Amino acid sequence: MTHTQPLSTRCALAAARLVAGCAVLALAALPVRAQTFPSKPIEIINSFSPGGTSDLNLRALETASERVFGQRTIQTFKPGGGGISGTTEVAHAKPDGYKLLVVTSGELTAGPNLAKTTYTLDSFTFLGRLSSTPYGFVVLNDSPWKDFNSFRNATIAEPGKFTMGTAPRGGVFLAAQHVIQQSKIKVTVVPFGGSGPYVTAVLGGHVNAALAPLPSIEAHLKAGTLRLLAITGSSRVPDHADVPTLKELGIDAPIVLWVGLVAPRDVPPDRVKFLRDGIARISKDPTYIGTADKLGIDHSYTSAGEFEAQVRQEDKDFKVLVQRLGLAPKDDR
């Protein structure tokens, strides 16, 4: 026996199908919504080799980035040209917020003043500074110099007799040259491949002094093999509260080793805001702070505006210094 549905039921079903069909057509007519950013991991280019200060900063950042951004950050090493190679890649990358750059003075303020580059500070959008640490002026612990002025006076009394290790080019090199000129010490500069080799040279007695990032000499200071005579920057550091700044000694030496994040120019404003806000949140994350402390990395975050102002001032200082040293590219300045 065939059972037929009552007319009222059939009408109700037909009406329901009609409503559903109209709803589908209406949804199809709506514009496709933009995909939420970020929808995939964010790549951060490091223009130097693993193991350096930039690498350590990003390792700390990675511990909190997925919770804050909703996606992982992936560090990619692109060393070469004193940081210029990787920096150039990001400067010309698609401005979608998925490729960022971890930066130091080597890439942004030293490199472009010492060599021709296809990028300038205006090629980037500043996101925030992650850390800032002074350079320390060190000598052997058993040397006769107990403070910076005694070393300075010795070099002035016998100009050319004493030596100072530094890197051949880049931010550390210009920081050292800045201190030499401002303090008027009379030393012969001996270039090495980086802070590791020239700190080793001080330990071996091959040079008398060096200006090095504090993290690279901390273990030797704790071991009592090196003596810290002074630091750059505007204030003393808690771990070495008895060591004066060069500024306190009447020497203008504001240059420090900073690490920050930038994006290519023209990243959409909403994505820039998301990244800037995220970095600010990461800077307060307990896991990030704990990891940074374990790695011996300073975590003195500053906003994008403050960070950019610091970098632009340093760029001006380095420009004058490079021209004074006669190291500016001859076909560019």
How does this model look, in words?
The structure is a single chain. This protein has a five-stranded mixed beta sheet, with helices on both faces. A five-stranded mixed beta sheet has the order 7-6-8-5-9, sandwiched between helices. About 7% of the residues have low confidence. It is an alpha/beta fold and 333 residues long. Helix 2 crosses helix 9, helix 4 crosses helix 6 and helix 4 runs parallel beside helix 11. It has two domains: 162 residues, D-Maltodextrin-Binding Protein, domain 2, CATH 3.40.190.150; 115 residues, D-Maltodextrin-Binding Protein, domain 2 (3-Layer(aba) Sandwich), CATH 3.40.190. Strand 1, helix 2 and strand 2 form a beta-alpha-beta unit. The protein has eleven helices and ten strands.
Throw out a few tags for this protein.
333 residues, alpha/beta, D-Maltodextrin-Binding Protein, domain 2, 2 domains, five-stranded mixed β-sheet, 11 helices, 10 strands, 18% strand, globular
Q: What is the string of SSEs from the N terminus onward?
A: HEHEHEHEEHEHEHEHEEHHH
Strand content: 15-25%
Number of domains: 2
**Average predicted local confidence, pLDDT:** 88
Low-confidence spans:
11-15, 18-34
What's the CATH first level of the largest domain? Alpha Beta
Query: What would CATH call the homologous superfamily of the largest domain?
Result: Bordetella uptake gene, domain 1
Radius of gyration, CA atoms, in whole angstroms: 28 Å
* CATH architectural type of the largest domain: 3-Layer(aba) Sandwich
User: Kindly, what is the distance between the CA atoms of the first and last residues, rounded to a whole number of angstroms?
Assistant: 100 Å
- Write down the overall geometry: globular
Q: Structural class of the helices, strands and pairings?
A: alpha/beta
